[in-house]
Amino acid sequence: MITKCLFPAAGYGTRFLPATKAMPKEMLPILTKPLIQYGVEEAYEAGCDIMAIITGRGKRAITDHFDISYELEHQIQGSPKENLLDEIRVLMDKCTFTYTRQNEMKGLGDAIYKGKVLVGDEQPFGVILADDLCVNADGDGVMSQMIKIYSKYRCSIVAIMEVPLDQVHKYGIISGKEIEDGIYMIEDMVEKPDKAPSNLAIIGRYILTPDIFKIIENTKSGKNGELQITDALLQQAKHGMVLGYKFKGKRFDCGSLDGFVEATNYFYDNLSTKG
Ligand code: G1P
Predict the structure, then answer these.
(1) Residue range 50-101, pLDDT digits in tens
(2) At 180, which helix (H) or strand (E)?
(3) Are the C-beta atoms of residues 205 and 126 closer than 8 Å to each other?
(4) Best exposed site among 11, 147, 149, 269 by fewest CB in 10 Å?
């Protein structure tokens, strides 16, 4: 039912300079896997097989990563090292990767709008921000959890988590009525507020119904002069229904140094390929 997932990946990643000077931030590795591969694996696990990636200038490494590297593969053919490519080969074999570019950084709402040409405007689709790395050691990944909720409510859904009040200025914040354990019907949402309506922060997982594209067309620039998906979703909530879902699992903010190191340690300690 939801088979397409959008990956906005056009940002500069300035917090990781100079590492991101010539390399996309989505290619920064946690252990041996780039961030974007974790995101694609989560989408694939959730039943998506069309991965629609919004890139920008200097992001060719992402396209190459999900393609065959003939010379390398020829070199390691038959050696034990070949196993290291097993996971990426499954993704390449089972999924279709499509790309378009966002030429100017005009905000997440604009990046998602650029994805219309890839995901179409007939079916709902997932959105994963790869620098929010999510794991759920006890069961389904976050996108799978959200797709289950979608099949019951059939509306746009954002993943949320509680954050300390002094952190709300970094996130889109929602408030609403809890209609089921951990599921909120959104009444208000605001991008990176100074004064927040709650401490429920949006993290980089969305399911969007395709009418969002029309709404984005009618949404004006918001916080920081950028077209914010949060503003478009508020309109959708006002005229219909949008849910906030407190996901199960852990989320690492790999767009920050602290989160990146925390994720690296977590994966090294728990799921590591060490030894
Ligand atoms: C984006 C969204 C914000 C959300 C955040 C999650 O912000 O605009 O609503 O809370 O992702 O990571 P960004 O971190 O790209 O500035």
Answers:
(1) 999 999 988 999 999 999 988 998 889 999 898 988 899 999 999 999 999 9
(2) strand 172-180
(3) yes
(4) 269
What is the helix (H) or strand (E) element at residue 112, kind and residue range? Answer: helix 108-114
pLDDT of residue 3: 98
In the chain, where the domains are located: 4-274
pLDDT confidence of 12, banded at 50, 70, 90? confident
| Ligand 1 atom 9, closest CA | 172
Q: How far is CA 107 from the centre of its chain?
A: 14
Mean pLDDT of 221-235: 96
Site to probe by mutation for ligand 1, drawn from 129, 198, 245 as the one with most ligand atoms within 8 Å of Cβ, is 129
108 lines ligand 1 (CB under 6 A): yes
State in Å: Cα 129 to ligand 1 middle: 8
The CB density around residue 87, as the number of other CB atoms within 10 Å, is 13
The answer to whether the CB of 48 falls within 8 A of the CB of 2 is yes
Q: Which pLDDT does position 274 carry in this prediction?
A: 56
- What is the spatial distance between Cα 102 and Cα 218, in angstroms, rounded to a whole number? 19
Ligand 1 pocket test: pick from 54, 102, 170 the residue with the most ligand atoms within 8 Å of its Cβ. Answer: 170
Kindly report the CATH class assigned to 4-274: alpha beta
With contact defined as beta carbons under 8 Å apart, do 205 and 248 qualify? no
